[in-house]
Design brief:
Layout (H helix, E strand, L loop, with lengths): L7 H4 L3 H8 L4 H8 L3 H11 L4 E4 L6 H8 L7 E5 L5 H6 L7 E7 L5 H9 L5 E7 L4 H14 L5 E7 L21 E7 L1 H7 L30 E6 L4 H10 L5 E6 L13 H6 L8 E6 L13 H10 L5 E5 L6 H10 L5 E5 L21 E5 L6 H7 L7 E3 L11 H4 L7 E3 L7 H8 L7 E3 L8 H8 L5 H4 L2 E3 L8 H10 L5 E3 L8 H10 L10 E3 L10 H4 L10 E3 L11 H9 L4 E3 L16 H4 L2
Parallel strand pairs: 1-2, 2-3, 3-4, 4-5, 5-6, 6-7, 7-8, 8-9, 9-10, 10-11, 11-12, 12-13, 13-14, 14-15, 15-16, 16-17, 17-18, 18-19, 19-20
C-alpha cells in the first residue's frame, strides 16, 4: 500500500462504515492509521477535528502524526503531548487561543522560547504543565517566563520543571515578575529556599545562595494572594524559616509538597526541626503533606527531627488525608504510629528510608483508621511480613508498595491476596519465593501491576504457578516487572506469552538467561486474537539476546509496541541498518539505548534526537 496515495480498496469502502470502525479504536492506533494512507488520514482527521480534549502522552508522536490528526481541529481546549520528538516549530502550530489546558511532557528538544510563544498564543490558558530540559542561558529563561506570565493572565495552575543540567544559582536569582492573581496551584522545580522566602515576604538574615540547580520563583511587590491552595517545590534546603513562612502566609493551603536536595550537610541553625513541623498546625485546611529529603546530591537526612516532631505534627494536623515522608532517619515507631492513629481520615501513607520503622508501628493497627487506600513503605529494612498481615485489615487498600523491604517473606501474603480492591503490589527486593506467587494466584485481588524486581528466590516455576492458580490475577495483570531476577529464563517468558494475555508492560532488564527464543514466542503468541499487544518492553542488559532479535521486531510482529529499551544488548550498535529500517517503518516506536526506566520517565532530559530515537 502506498502511504501517499492510499489503498484503493479502502477508498471504495463507504465513509460511514469506515468512520464507524475508527471511532472504536484507541487514540494511539488512530494516530498510526492516520499515517498509513490518504484515505485513513482523511477519516481520522475528521474524527479528531471534533475533539475538545486530547491526551497523546502514551507515546511520542512526531510532527507528521500531529499534522495528520490536529490540523483541522478548531475546538481543542485541552492538549497533552509527549514531546520527545517535537521541536518549537511543531508545537507552535498546534497551540492557539482556544486552549485552556496545555501539558507538555519530556520536552528534550524544546527551547525556553516556547514559553513566550505560549504567552502570545494562549491568552485563555488556565493550566500549564511544562517539563523541559535545562539550558545554559538563564537570562533567556527569565525573559521568556516573564512574557508567558504577562500573556496568560487567567492562569490557575503553573507546573514548571526544568531538569537535566547544572545551572548557576545566580543566574536564576529573584527577579521582578508578577504571578497572575488567579494562580491556585504552583509547582516549581528547582528553586532556591532563599527565593521562596523573598516570595513569602519574610524578614530574614541575608545569606549567600548556595551552588545549586535553581529556578527563580516570580516575586510580586504586593502581598501574596491567599487563593493559592497547592504548592509543590524542589529546593536546595527545607528549613524552619521556610515552613513558618508558608504557614503564616498560606493559611488556606490544602496541599504542601516539598522536596530538598542538599549539596552538603545542613548546618545546625539552618535546617528543619520539630518547631518547623509544629508551625504547620496553623494550616487548618491542610489535607495533603509531603516532606522529602533526597540523597541525589548528598547523602543526608533530617537529623533534627525526632518522635516529638511527629507528635506535634499529628496533633496539629489531624485532618491529613495523605502523608508522604522521606529521610526522617531519627523517627521511630512511636512517631509514625502517631500519624496513623491521629489522622482519622488518612487515605495515603508513604514512608521512605526510615531506619527505625518496624512492625511495632503497626502493633495496634486495628485501632487505626480503616480508610487507607495506599500504603508505601519504601526501603524500610525492619518491616517484615507481620506488617503485611496487619495491613490486610484495610479492606479498602488499593496500592501496597514494599519496595526494598528485604525482610518481607512468604508468610502473611495469603491475607493480602484476599483484598478485593488491591490493584498495585510491589514486592521488589523482598525475600519471597515461588510459594508466594502460588498463593497470589489463588486470591481474588484484581492486581493490575505486579513488581517482583530483584526477588532472587523467585524462579520460572513461580511464574508458572502465578498464572495457573485459577485466581483473579491471571485475568487482570497488565504490568509485570521481572527485572534483576537470576531465576528467570525463557521458560518464564513463555508462560507470560501464553497465559498473561492482559499484560501490556513487561520488564526483563538484567535477565541474563532470556534469549531470542523468548522474543520469538512473544512475537508469535501475542499477535493472536484474544491477547493484548505488548506496548512497553524493557530488555536493557539482556545479554542473552543476539542480533537476530531484529527479525522478530519486523511488522506485523509486536504490532502494538510503543516503547523498547534495548541498551547494553547485541543491538546496542546504533549503526545496525536492519534495525534502523524497522524503526523507520514504525514512526510511533520509541527506542531507548540509555537504560531509562520504562517510558523514559527518568532520563529523557539527557536524550538528543540522534541518540534516543530513530
Amino acid at each position: 500500500m502506498n502511504r501517499r496515495t492510499g489503498d484503493p480498496s479502502l477508498e471504495r469502502l463507504p465513509s460511514a462504515v469506515l468512520d464507524e470502525i475508527l471511532v472504536k479504536v484507541d487514540l494511539e492506533s488512530l494516530c498510526s492509521a492516520a499515517c498509513a494512507c490518504r484515505t485513513l488520514r482523511s477519516s481520522v482527521s475528521q474524527i479528531f477535528s471534533s475533539l475538545s480534549s486530547l491526551d497523546l502522552s502514551g507515546f511520542s508522536p512526531n510532527s507528521e502524526i500531529l499534522n495528520c490528526v490536529l490540523r483541522e481541529n478548531e475546538v481543542l481546549k485541552s492538549l497533552t503531548l509527549n514531546c520527545l520528538r517535537l521541536d518549537d516549530s511543531t508545537v507552535r502550530i498546534f497551540i492557539g487561543s482556544g486552549l485552556q489546558e496545555l501539558v507538555l511532557q519530556r520536552c528534550s528538544l524544546l527551547s525556553y522560547q516556547i514559553l513566550s510563544s505560549i504567552g502570545q498564543r494562549c491568552p485563555s490558558l488556565r493550566v500549564l504543565v511544562l517539563e523541559i530540559g535545562g539550558q545554559s542561558l538563564p537570562q533567556v529563561f527569565k525573559e521568556n517566563l516573564s512574557q508567558m506570565l504577562k500573556g496568560c493572565a487567567k492562569l490557575e495552575t503553573l507546573n514548571l520543571k526544568i531538569r537535566g543540567t547544572e545551572l548557576d544559582a545566580d543566574g536564576f536569582e529573584s527577579i521582578e515578575l508578577v504571578l497572575p492573581r488567579t494562580i491556585k496551584i504552583l509547582q516549581l522545580q528547582p528553586v532556591l529556599e532563599l527565593d521562596v522566602m523573598q516570595f513569602m515576604h519574610e524578614t530574614r538574615v541575608d545569606r549567600k545562595p548556595v551552588e545549586s540547580t535553581s529556578l527563580s520563583i516570580p516575586t510580586c511587590p504586593t502581598p501574596i494572594d491567599m487563593r493559592l491552595r497547592s504548592i509543590s517545590l524542589v529546593l536546595d534546603i527545607i528549613s524552619d524559616e521556610l515552613l513558618i513562612a508558608i504557614a503564616n502566609n498560606l493559611q488556606f493551603l490544602v496541599e504542601l509538597d516539598l522536596e530538598d536536595r542538599p549539596i552538603k550537610e545542613p548546618s545546625l541553625h539552618h535546617d528543619m526541626t520539630n518547631s518547623g513541623l509544629q508551625s504547620l498546625s496553623s494550616c487548618r485546611h491542610l489535607t495533603c503533606l509531603s516532606l522529602m529529603r533526597s540523597k541525589q546530591n548528598f547523602a543526608t537526612t533530617f537529623k533534627r527531627i525526632n518522635d516529638m516532631g511527629m507528635f506535634l505534627l499529628a496533633e496539629g494536623c489531624k485532618s491529613l488525608e495523605s502523608v508522604r515522608l522521606g529521610g526522617f532517619s531519627r523517627v521511630s515507631d512511636a512517631g509514625f504510629a502517631a500519624i496513623l492513629h491521629s489522622c482519622r481520615s488518612l487515605k495515603k501513607f508513604e514512608v521512605f528510608s526510615a531506619f527505625f520503622l518496624s512492625d511495632l508501628a503497626f502493633h495496634n493497627f486495628s485501632e487505626a483508621p480503616s480508610s487507607l487506600t495506599e500504603v508505601r513503605l519504601i526501603s524500610c529494612s525492619l518491616i517484615t511480613s507481620e506488617t503485611v498481615g496487619k495491613l490486610s485489615s484495610c479492606r479498602s487498600l488499593e496500592v501496597l508498595d514494599l519496595w526494598g523491604c528485604k525482610s518481607v517473606a512468604d508468610n502473611w501474603l495469603g491475607l493480602i491476596s484476599t483484598l478485593s480492591g488491591l490493584t498495585t503490589l510491589n514486592l521488589g527486593g523482598a525475600d519471597i519465593t515461588d510459594n508466594s506467587l502460588s498463593v497470589l494466584s489463588m486470591g481474588n485481588s484484581p492486581i493490575a501491576s505486579l513488581c517482583l524486581r530483584g526477588c532472587k528466590r523467585v524462579t520460572d516455576k513461580g511464574l508458572g504457578l502465578l498464572f495457573r492458580g485459577g485466581g483473579t490475577i491471571s485475568e487482570t495483570l497488565s504490568a509485570l516487572d521481572l527485572g534483576y531476577m537470576p531465576g528467570i529464563s525463557d521458560r518464564a517468558v513463555h508462560t507470560v506469552a501464553e497465559a498473561g494475555l492482559e499484560i501490556t508492560d513487561l520488564c526483563l532488564r538484567y535477565c541474563y538467561f532470556v534469549t531470542d527464543a523468548s522474543m520469538e514466542v512473544l512475537a508469535s503468541k501475542r499477535s493472536k486474537e484474544g491477547s493484548k499487544p505488548i506496548r512497553n518492553l524493557d530488555l536493557y542488559h539482556c545479554i542473552g539476546l543476539s542480533l537476530n532479535l531484529s527479525a522478530f521486531l519486523r511488522r506485523p510482529s509486536f504490532c502494538g509496541l510503543r516503547w523498547l529499551g534495548i541498551g547494553q544488548t547485541s543491538l546496542s550498535n546504533r549503526g545496525n541498518v536492519g534495525f534502523s529500517e524497522i524503526c523507520r517503518d514504525r514512526p510511533w516506536l520509541t527506542v531507548c539505548w540509555d537504560g531509562c526506566e520504562m517510558g523514559c520517565h527518568n532520563g529523557w532530559q539527557f536524550h538528543g534526537p540522534d541518540d534516543h530515537l530513530f
